Amino acid sequence: MKKINILIVEDEKAIIEELRAYIDHWGYTVINSCINREKILALIKEENINVIIMDICIEGCKQGLETAAMIKKKYPNIEIIFLCDHLDDYNINKAIEIDPVAYIAKPINREEQRISLKIAINRITKENKNKKTNPNYFILDEEFCYDTDSAILFYDHIPMHLTKKENKLLELLIKHRNSIVSISTIKNYIWADQEINDNAIRSLVKRLRQKLKYKFIETFSTRGYKISPYQLK
Q: Which residues are in the OmpR/PhoB-type domain (predicted)?
């Protein structure tokens, strides 16, 4: 992984600045800070967040826990570190179900925060290594991999949204990786007996290329397309 992107979910400006100073000093990147659930989800999607440091009671413990649970369900590879003033036994048990890296009491202890971040990054690194050795994961490069079992494309460990046709095209290209897949094969696999023209295929390839940051897919004029993973060092 090239860098660790961290999102801070906290409403106290002094704590945000304190965390930023610590994290910058340790060589990681704070992407942003926010408190709104919709903004959190938007930033995760836009910025490929790896770790969230989150005040568990940002909008009340119940809503904070619901937001964290929603994040972990949708993005299981994101690691969460909870900040809290006080939690009763009921909310502690609810928080445990989310499997956070740690709970850090306020005021924040710098060493506790540093250790928690190291644990979070270690979890992410282990997950990355597991993907590289898992036969169900097709590694495109250090950022992109495709889970052939669940048909999910990951960018920096974050699941990406693909349309049904984009997913089928990627699946087909990976199945025949390093070989040219003909235009007729693509038509039959994705559209079956439907009548479509070559512009529909070009448009589909263009959309998939955009999501892959214009990497991997090669065009062979009038013949078809090929996907080639980068050689990892």
A: 135-229
